Amino acid sequence: MVLPFWRDLAKGFAISELGSDLRADHPDFDAERGRLLHALGLASISEDEAAARLLAVAARTAPDYVPRVPDDDYLPYKLLFPSGPA
User: Fold this and answer.
1) Secondary structure letter of residue 35 according to DSSP
2) Phi/psi of residue 76, each to 5°?
3) DSSP-assigned letters across all residues of 33-77
4) Are 59 and 81 in contact (CB under 8 A)?
5) Which of 13, 34, 69, 73 could form a disulfide with 8 if both were Cys (CB 3.0 to 4.6 A apart)?
6) Helix, strand or coil for residue 36?
7) Taking the mean position of all CA atoms in its chain, how far away is CA 81?
C-alpha cells in the first residue's frame, strides 16, 4: 500500500523518484491509499519509513531463511536486498 514500487528499491532507484513517477501515472494514488489504510484501520507511514522497515526485515532473513530452489543442488535464491538496510 505504501510502497507499490518496492522491487525497484533493490535496483537503486530513489524513493522520491519512484513516488513521483507513480503519482504522475496514478494521480489518485494517495487518496486511494488513504481510503484503504482507513478501511483496514492502519496508520499511515512515510515511504521512507516503510522502505527502512522493509529493508530491515529483509536483512534479518539472511542467511537462515533464504528460500532454496528445489532442484538437485538446492541452491539458494538470490537476495532481493543483498546490501541490507540503507
Assistant:
1) H
2) -75, 150
3) HHHHHHHHT-----HHHHHHHHHHHHHHHTTTT--B--SSS-PBP
4) yes
5) 13
6) helix
7) 10
Question: Hey, how many other C-beta atoms are within 10 angstroms of the C-beta on 24?
Answer: 9
Question: What is the C-alpha end-to-end distance of the chain, expressed in Å?
Answer: 21
Cα(82)–Cα(9) distance, integer angstroms: 11
Residue 79: all three cell numbers together: 537476495
- CA nearest neighbour of 36 among 44, 47, 48: 44
**Single-letter residue type at 27:** P
CA 70 to CA 27: how far, in whole Å? 42
Rounded distance between C-alpha atoms, residue 69 and residue 47, angstroms: 32
Per-residue pLDDT of the chain (86 residues; tens, 9 = 90+): 788 888 787 778 888 888 898 999 999 999 999 999 999 999 999 988 988 888 888 777 766 766 777 777 766 667 666 664 44
